[in-house]
Design a protein that fits this description.
This protein is mainly alpha-helical. The chain folds into two domains: 166 residues, no CATH class; 46 residues, no CATH class. The protein contains twelve helices and no strands. The longest helix is centred in the N-terminal third of the chain and has 31 residues. InterPro entries: Brnchd-chn_aa_trnsp_permease. It is a multi-pass membrane protein.
């Protein structure tokens, strides 16, 4: 196989995401069918939407029969942070050719955290290495959500608290980022921005405002962060 080395290394690097995505996807599938939706909606959503936070929120959209405009606005606010991820990876994805649209689509919080915390092997074909890494990640999520939906369709039990699984993964990724950076200041800024938005901003705009506020503070204290 031409890109066997890229495939092998991408799989090894993606194992932490596999451990989280299969479990999280399983939880999403269980939660979806617990509201009496068909199991096949789980793989369809995981293939075309593929954004954990929005997929969990989408279940509530379905339940309250939200309008298309409301869903579009809420989705934009939830996923606007992805724009900042993409901007920081422009140089990495610059020479990926026809694979670039998929790399942009498949970029998630977890894959971004992984891409920004690992060192690239200069001997690898970066284009295919990135593709395999992001493809594996989506496959794990799709597999987990499908298995969870099928399991939940056949075995009924209490799913209360499953929605917290996504938050748990974010906490683990935050810890891994700190271990990599060894600098508490950016995390303090993120914490401060979140608390500010939680107290003073309406819940439907809290995420966007906290991201913007955090970015402003990061630019203000850029030199301090780099020196540390």
């Amino acid at each position: 196989m031409k890109y066997k080395n890229e495939l092998s290394i991408a799989f090894k690097v993606s194992i932490p995401i596999m451990m989280g995505y299969i479990v999280l996807g399983f939880a999403f599938g269980l939660l979806l069918v617990s509201f009496d939706y068909s199991w096949y909606l789980a793989p369809i959503m995981s293939f075309f939407i593929y954004t954990g936070a929005l997929q969990f929120v989408a279940i509530n959209f379905f339940n309250i029969k939200a309008g298309y405009v409301d869903i579009a606005i809420a989705s934009w606010f939830i996923n606007i942070r992805q724009a900042f991820y993409g901007l920081s990876l422009i140089k990495r994805f610059n020479k990926t050719g026809k694979l670039k649209p998929y790399l942009i689509f498949a970029l998630t919080d977890e894959t971004y955290a992984l891409l920004t915390s690992i060192k690239d092997d200069e001997n690898l074909n970066k284009k295919w290495y990135y593709f395999f890494l992001l493809f594996f990640s989506q496959f794990y999520w799709l597999l987990g959500s499908t298995l969870g939906a099928i399991f939940g369709s056949n075995i009924k039990f209490n799913t209360q608290g499953l929605e917290f699984s996504l938050t748990a993964l974010f906490v683990v990724l935050c810890i891994e980022q700190y271990k990599s950076l060894k600098n508490i200041f950016p995390f303090f800024i993120g914490f401060l921005s979140s608390i500010f938005a939680l107290i003073f901003i309406p819940s439907d705009k809290m995420l966007l405002v906290s991201i913007i506020f955090a970015l402003i503070l990061l630019f203000i204290f850029e030199k301090k962060i780099e020196n540390e």
